[in-house]
TrEMBL record:
Phylogenetic classification of the source organism: Bacteria, Bacillati, Bacillota, Clostridia, Eubacteriales
Official protein name in the record: Selenocysteine lyase/Cysteine desulfurase
PROSITE patterns: AA_TRANSFER_CLASS_5
Family listed: Belongs to the class-V pyridoxal-phosphate-dependent aminotransferase family. Csd subfamily.
The species this protein was found in: Caloramator proteoclasticus DSM 10124
Domain Aminotransferase class V: 26-414
Domain of life: Bacteria
Alphabetized UniProt keyword annotations: Lyase, Pyridoxal phosphate
Length: 428
């Protein structure tokens, strides 16, 4: 199977190097954002003739736009294997979805315990930290979730844990959590589960429902910009009953049935939770991306990206002085974190860009507790990090993250570039 290169915008772009020459760009930073599909951009262009503000407009364009916006909810439920009991709330991105969910859970269970894990992105850590008593499930030395530690915590807080918030796939190591097994464990102890799907959604078919209903996922969230659609739109999906109580976090136009001087009757879900003029174009683009992923088949995407991952892992082993993290884990999305002994991660990323036209990300990827643990840093190391004003000298990793349009030849070019970097810079 060839890569799905023809479907994606910008994969043949040339970019300038430091010496003034131009080279074909390689993007290995897809965990941050993927480029859009060509037909998503085509659809945005086409729909721009018809779009209009939705819901209360009786004009033709308002009705067409409302239809596209509202019917998208069912397409999303089908795409993520949700059920009729679930509602789809459109938000800006995963971060906003998690903040919204934390507001909802807090209004229902203000004194409860929320469990997160050491592996989380800050977006699935900080929204919980300031509203709840939180505790953190440990990872092992390789970065995997410690399920025994999870069960121990569920037992010791018996009945007080109302939610476990965990990522489906790590944005640092790519490691995939056994979320349905974890769901069964949460439900056994009376907790619900929220799964951050930002890193899985474009790489593997997911299903909130499971044939064993104890393993169902209660809430999920993801962002369109990590699945070949533009920025500014994401979703929170979850059980209507849990999301319907309380007042909305964002109050304003579109959220009410009645307002008088002294009382408010809130609208039903999902409108109550979508304050302000909705991002109709974003939703249309997201659905176009979902249709394209359905057309390609996520099983094929997963299989192709696994081959890229295997090829890269094996090829890069030959690079002298490379150090991998979480080596040997089978069940992961196509992400490789690494360092080169003797060359700062920031320099590796900069040189790859300036001298070889290869885009990667470096640092802690908004997952500092996890990266610090992978790097074996202790508290005093972390205090020193805070003191050091030069952020480029802070500890971190280089991250490669592949997507369906990357190729084996691109990985060969990366290997060549890393070998050159080791030769030129690692002894300085
Ligand atoms: N969770 C994970 C695992 C992520 O990788 C990211 C983005 N890097 C987020 C949450 C936040 O996504 P967004 O910035 O689109 O809100």
């Amino acid at each position: 199977m060839d890569s799905f290169r023809d479907l994606v915008v910008g994969v043949e772009s040339f970019v300038p190097l430091k010496d003034g020459s131009f080279i074909k760009y390689i993007n290995f930073d897809n965990a941050a954002t993927t480029p859009p599909f060509k037909n998503v951009m085509w659809f945005i262009n086409y729909f721009s003739e018809y779009y209009s503000s939705i819901h209360r407009g009786e004009g033709y364009k308002s009705r067409v736009s409302t239809e596209i916006y509202e019917s998208a909810r069912e397409d999303i439920i089908n795409f993520i294997g949700g059920s009729k009991e679930d509602t789809v709330i459109f938000v800006k991105n995963t971060t906003e979805a998690i903040n919204k969910l934390s507001f909802k859970i807090c209004s229902q269970y203000p004194n409860c315990v929320v469990l997160t894990t050491e592996m989380e992105h800050h977006s699935n850590l900080l929204p919980w930290r300031f509203r709840f008593h939180i505790d953190t499930v440990r990872t092992d030395s390789c970065g995997r979730i410690d399920l025994e530690n999870l069960e121990k915590k569920l037992k010791s807080y018996y009945g007080m844990v109302k939610l476990v918030a965990i990522t489906y796939a790590s944005n640092v190591t790519g490691y995939i959590n056994p979320v349905h097994e974890i769901a069964a464990l949460c439900h056994k102890y009376g907790a619900k589960i929220f799964v951050d799907c930002a890193q899985i959604i474009a790489h593997k078919k997911i299903s909130m429902k499971n044939e064993d209903e104890r393993k169902n996922l209660d809430f999920i969230a993801f962002s369109a910009h990590k699945m070949y659609a533009p920025f500014g739109i994401g979703v929170l999906v979850g059980d209507k009953n849990s999301l319907s109580s309380g007042i909305p976090d964002i109050k304003g136009g579109g959220t009410v049935k009645v307002v008088t001087d002294d009382f408010v009757v809130w609208d039903d879900l999902p409108h109550k939770e979508e304050g302000g003029t909705p991002n109709v174009m974003g939703v249309a683009a997201l659905i176009s991306a979902i249709n394209t992923l359905n057309y390609i088949g996520l099983d094929k995407v997963e299989e192709y990206e696994k081959r890229l991952l295997k090829y890269a892992s094996e090829a890069l082993k030959d690079v002298k002085d490379i150090r991998f993290y979480c080596d040997g884990i089978e069940d992961k999305v196509a992400i490789i974190p690494f360092n080169i002994e003797g060359v700062n991660h920031n320099d590796v990323a900069r040189i790859l860009s300036e001298e070889y036209g290869i885009g990667v990300r470096n640092g802690c990827f908004c997952a500092q507790p996890y990266v610090h643990k992978l790097l074996n840093l202790n508290r005093s190391d972390i205090k020193n990090i805070i003191r050091d004003s030069d952020i480029t000298k802070r500890p971190g990793l280089v991250r490669l993250s592949f997507a369906l349009y990357n190729t084996f030849e691109e990985i060969d070019r990366l290997k060549f570039a890393l070998e050159e970097i080791v030769k030129k810079y690692s002894s300085i």
